[in-house]
Amino acid sequence: QVHLVESGGGVVQPGRSLRLSCAASGFTFNKYAMQWVRQAPGKGLEWVAVISYGGDNIHYADSVKGRFTVSRDNSLNTVYLQMNDLRREDTAVYYCARDRLWFVDFDYWGQGSLVTVSS
Amino acid sequence: QSALTQPASVSGSPGQSITISCTGTSSDVGGYNFVSWYQQHPGTAPKLIIYEISHRPSGVSDRFSAAKSGNTASLTISGLQAEDGADYYCSSYSSSNTYLFGTGTKVTVL
Asked: How do beta strands B86-94 and B72-77 pair?
């Protein structure tokens, strides 16, 4: 049974950093790309970043490019989202999701981790 | 990177059919056969209900169907049930290695 569990969220001041983790189980982690998607309070879904199964192909949304870094450790079945220079508009629930093929659709999602950027 | 356009809300009575549209451009919806749909109940993570325009994952009710014509995709829910009340999002791969979601549609079962 596929299981994705995000952690690392919390309250952080503008300009500071935070790292989210997503622990995966129930499937062969190193055979799937992984995605990060966020949802601001009361708003819709916004794609954030993707990392290929090997970690060598990475893409970001323009809204986070240069500030966020996605990485993965296949030995730990974990994907990370390092978020630097956080802004109030980054406040959202952050979901990790398994990419079914590559940039096609996301077939399993974690429960989400809330990040609040506030002074 | 603009979101795909969906109606903000759609409603219907139990047993009726409703359709949600999703309009993009030739750089996303119209250019690829990778439109998918997600259902999200309040306080929960999204769930994939349609992939590659019209395919249903295992376990998804056949009351959900979808199609695409040009730059517009659509999701139809037949035999509307109370449990179908949720937010629905379309999505598509977009050129230049980005991914777009729709603006979201709130479905209300009257």
From this structure: unpaired
